[in-house]
From TrEMBL:
Pfam families cross-referenced by the UniProt entry: Zn_ribbon_TFIIS (PF01096)
Family of this protein: Belongs to the archaeal rpoM/eukaryotic RPA12/RPB9/RPC11 RNA polymerase family.
Record lineage: Eukaryota, Metamonada, Diplomonadida, Hexamitidae, Hexamitinae
Protein name, per record: DNA-directed RNA polymerase subunit
Keywords: DNA-directed RNA polymerase, Metal-binding, Nucleus, Transcription, Zinc, Zinc-finger
Listed CDD domains: Zn-ribbon_RPA12
Domain TFIIS-type stretches: 60-100
Gene Ontology biological process terms from the UniProt entry: termination of RNA polymerase I transcription
Subcellular location: Nucleus, Nucleolus
Organism listed in the record: Hexamita inflata
Keyword Zinc included in the entry's annotation: yes
């Protein structure tokens, strides 16, 4: 018999080693041989820094002026008037050095 998560509806893989829904992290426990499922919420605590390092940030081939590494994360912002170019902010993948350039 298939079991589904009560929170998100994901099909649960009810095995010995798994005790939570992979999609929403809601925990469950098997009560007996019929594999009845009891729901409980599992909370994962992260710091803001951990979260920021997990999110997908755009990468570009850009040489770091500090360490010479060839890849950097980047963001752009319009810092000056609309008829001028944008400012590109870089962060080196290897050493974390931050620098900018006006385009």
């Amino acid at each position: 018999m298939n079991k589904f998560c009560c929170d998100c509806g994901t099909l649960l893989d009810v095995q010995e080693h798994q005790n939570y829904c992979f999609a929403c992290n809601k925990g469950f426990k098997k009560l007996n041989s019929q594999q009845k499922v009891v729901q409980e919420k599992v909370y994962v605590h992260q710091t803001a820094a951990e979260f920021l390092h997990q999110e997908a940030r755009p990468l570009i081939d850009e040489e770091c002026p500090k360490c010479g590494h060839g890849r950097a994360y980047y963001t752009t912002q319009q810092m000056r008037s609309a008829d001028e170019g944008q400012t590109v902010f870089f962060e080196c993948v290897k050493c974390g050095y931050k620098y900018k350039t006006n385009t």
